[in-house]
Amino acid sequence: MTKPPLIRFKDSQIELAHGAGGKASRRLVEGLIAPILGNPSLDDAALLSLGGAGLAFTADSFVVKPLRFPGGSIGELAVNGTVNDLAVSGAQPVALLSTLILEAGLSVQVLQAELEAIQQAAQTAGVQVVGGDTKVVEHGKADGLYISTSGVGLLDLRVRLSAASVRPGDQVLLSGPIGDHGITILLARGELDLEADLKSDTRSVWPFVQALITAAAPGLRWMRDPTRGGVATALNELARDTRLAIRLLEERVPIRDEVRGACEILGLDPLHIANEGQFLAIVAPEYAEAALEAVQAVPGGAEARLVGEVVESPAGVVYSATGYSSSRVVDMLVGDPLPRIC
Amino acid sequence: MTKPPLIRFKDSQIELAHGAGGKASRRLVEGLIAPILGNPSLDDAALLSLGGAGLAFTADSFVVKPLRFPGGSIGELAVNGTVNDLAVSGAQPVALLSTLILEAGLSVQVLQAELEAIQQAAQTAGVQVVGGDTKVVEHGKADGLYISTSGVGLLDLRVRLSAASVRPGDQVLLSGPIGDHGITILLARGELDLEADLKSDTRSVWPFVQALITAAAPGLRWMRDPTRGGVATALNELARDTRLAIRLLEERVPIRDEVRGACEILGLDPLHIANEGQFLAIVAPEYAEAALEAVQAVPGGAEARLVGEVVESPAGVVYSATGYSSSRVVDMLVGDPLPRIC
């Protein structure tokens, strides 16, 4: 499979959109970072064979604002985000490292609360925080605290995931309602005159992935956690990498009324909104029902749905079949409606 | 070996000194971070047995200011710092992840130069950058860019390092001249009316460690790279952990005239100044000469010296024997003469 030619990165300075997970991020990563570092897998966990063990290895930075929000906080996000990167690469998360960049003047109470959130989330996810590092910068040179987390996981030998294994007819499984995290953060900033009874979906998806592997390993082709850029961006990347199309059955995509309402008012597409506790899986058709049942049987998985299908064409495109025999193209996120979402 | 009781952390807000690597850092880590995360090895690489492989796993953040300085830059530091943490844990560095926190408005030229520095340093050190992540924060919420690097290495089965294996009579090996990095950064800020023909010592120490392991593995007890807090802090931590004393032969410690001169003018102790390309090793006496010769035989190792010895008492103390039969206690770094040194 030949990848399409790399985008050229021509911008002269970094903008917030370069961190939003959509087209600008992709341009930065594929047009500048990946060519220099000579590395094709900057988005996903890296898979390594080391001393005879099959490992996944991943790292993320977290700069979410505000630090605490309904349903979670930066510390919890930093654990679950890294755990989920490992999980969707088919690896059982084992150990984490967390590095902190603290702003001088940060309240120790705030730091303590985030350390406790890290520890609590790690315990819930069944991983150990085995080390880390702390740096301090002057007041005004960070925003409270930033966390970088890296994680190592043990690859489950029953699965072999790759975009290259995806075939027309494969089904798209989505683990639950979308947009909760992004809209929660947006509202938590208090800049909009909008309230909703909503909280972040931050959680470890490993229990769901584990159930999915047990039920449907031979039919499991590809997984991704649709964080920055949302479901639309993750599926567009898949469509592009496979040169196939995704037919999304939009009416099956679970979206809470609060998220739908906020998106309508703000002119956002829920498919572009970040999630922190969901995943997408591409499953061979003969395993799709078993996969869905397995995910639904895990507590918190009842709202999982099969939301689409891989089709031949138009190559590289995600489109939504609306149910009225019309359809619309679902593009990647462009611009940055939601800076510092994770 | 029972560790002394943990220090209690009573500060109400974070100060720059908490990031300087000396006593305040130690109080933060041992009094707050480690108790909450339930983790005794926050300073060093964590050792894991995973899928039958013995691995070392480490992470650091880099916030050095300025981004570029004589002899190196933040990107090069981010690679070598992580590589060296793995090396001194007795592991061959294999793979790195690098996460970037970029400030909106950062020049892409600056970013590109640091990506190239990362790639060049990784190549020189024989490791691969296998992944990463990029976040962007608003202008004024970072200082150009911060980098967090994590690394995984394969433990060399010939060595088993621990403070608990250190015995009176063991020799202290130092790989080369101290203080170059810290003084270079201090002068590069241009805030002092001082110039010197000096550059950072940033480099991978793995070639030296590898030679040391080959020549003296059975006698190799403990290693550490004396970064923030310098040689004095690293040896004080060893003295404390072993409840033994270190007799430092200060006249044998290699220090360039430029570093000595700058320290005299600024009232700093070279033993407290950060290094980014040196390491300390504790070696059983019968292996000390072979160890020294092995390190000296590696290009860049000619200035390695045996600079001291482990003795029984006074327990927990590092002292300098000055050669005039007098001696002085060499304490850990207190306060923060050099913020954002790495």
How would you characterize the overall build of this protein?
The structure is a homodimer of 342-residue chains. By secondary structure, chain A is an alpha+beta fold. Chain A folds into two domains: 44-155, 2-Layer Sandwich (60s Ribosomal Protein L30, Chain: A); 163-329, PurM-like C-terminal domain (Phosphoribosyl-aminoimidazole Synthetase, Chain A, domain 2, Alpha-Beta Complex), CATH 3.90.650. Chain A has eight helices and 14 strands. In chain A, the strands form three sheets. In chain A, strands 9-11-8-12-10-13-14 form a seven-stranded mixed sheet. In chain A, a hairpin with a 2-residue loop joins strand 3 (68-69) and strand 4. The two termini of chain A are 32 Å apart.
